Amino acid sequence: MRSFVMLLALTVLAFAVSLTDHFTSPPIEVLVTRTDQWVFCQNYGVTIQIKAMEPVTVNKVEVIAKFYPEGTLVPTVDRRSFNGFSLSTGDVKQIALSFNYCPQRVIDPLILLEIWIYLPNYTLSYNYYIGRVRPSTYEDLANYAASLEQKVEDLSAQIDQLKQKIADLQAQLKNKEAQIANLTSLLSAARLDNDRLAARLRK
Q1: Kind of pairing, strands 56-68 and 76-87?
Q2: What whole-number distance in Å separates Cα of residue 154 and Cα of residue 148?
Q3: Beta bridge pairs of residue 62
Q4: C-beta separation of 27 from 122 below 8 A
Q5: Which long-range CB contacts under 8 A does 33-36 form with residues at least 24 apart?
Q6: How far is C-alpha 52 from the chain's CA centre?
Q7: How far is it, in rounded angstroms, from Cα 69 to Cα 203?
């Protein structure tokens, strides 16, 4: 049997907000889903679903993650291979995998995911461009954290000032209440004296 390679390069710009992508190339359909955990220094999760449009035999599936650190065109490569399988029409094969990458530089790398599906007579290739997951640098995050810390300190100081003002107002209120009580007593005594004087004058 004559072997030849047919390369189907389908490059899709899948930004951080897009978690799924799909392509169809008989005899299969492929759905790629990545988790929402594609963040700095954590697992980069991917699920690949291969559906048969007609009976098909897959010799091997290979997934290659290429991480391009900032300022270089030489990627760090992580390669995974999966054994072959056969599918009847409508059958689905699901492959779940994850990559872990923690770049030395402070900015997340550009990420290119290559999916190679080896059929008996040709190979299908799918390129899933994820792009930079987080454009912020450690310095940006550190500055933001510092600004938040300063904001917390400022708000805490304002809260302490308000608490002190409330305490002062409460002390003033107690003082006023004492003055009112004293004036009320004096008023009661004056009324009593006035009533006694009025009674004497009526005699």
Answers
A1: antiparallel
A2: 10
A3: 81, 116
A4: no
A5: 34/130
A6: 34
A7: 110
Residue 16's pLDDT is what?
37
pLDDT in tens, 7-65: 222 232 333 335 778 888 889 999 988 775 555 566 678 889 999 999 999 999 999 98
User: pLDDT for 122-143, tens place per residue?
Assistant: 999 988 777 665 555 566 667 7
**DSSP type of residue 90:** T
Q: Is-contact 88 52, C-beta < 8 A?
A: yes
Q: What is the mean pLDDT of residues 177-188?
A: 86
| Separation between Cα atoms, residue 74 and residue 78, nearest integer Å | 13
Q: Are 137 and 104 in contact (CB under 8 A)?
A: no
Q: Which two tokens stand for residue 119?
A: 């059929």
DSSP state of 32: E
Amino acid type, 41:
C
Q: Which pair of tokens denotes residue 69?
A: 């650190």
